[in-house]
Amino acid sequence: MAFNIGDLVKGKVVAIKNFGVLVKLGEREKGLIHISKISDSYVKDVKTVFQIGQEVQAKVIGFTKDGKFDLSTRESDLKGNEKIVHDHKRTPDSNRKKEVFEKKLSRFMKESDRKISDLRKSMDKRLKSSKYKKK
Questions:
Q1: How many whole angstroms separate alpha carbon 59 and alpha carbon 4?
Q2: CATH assignment of 8-79?
Q3: What is the pLDDT of residues 38-61, one digit of tens each?
Q4: How far apart (Å, rounded) are the C-alpha atoms in residues 9 and 21?
């Protein structure tokens, strides 16, 4: 079975881990529902939500590094209210975030340089006016 990002799939819970749930999708495919993708609200313990053998409906939101489907059962994901791209490739949105980060970093560096310069000037004035002048 080949699934695409955005597809709704049905599967059966085959393992419960601290970090999420492993779901069997058909004969060969497996998926992972990470604990952060189980619900829109906080989930402290995965075992309170799922049981082994339970049928689940989830949305394919990407692929894990080890070839499993990355799944979500969050209400907002199932309704499609959220743009989901988890294929670990750069998207235009991530490029924009990088540009915003770089601008913030540049502004921080300039402000830091200015503060260090002001501090040095202040220290030089204190040394010149103090009784402990350099000889």
A1: 10
A2: 2.40.50.140
A3: 988 888 889 999 999 999 999 998
A4: 15
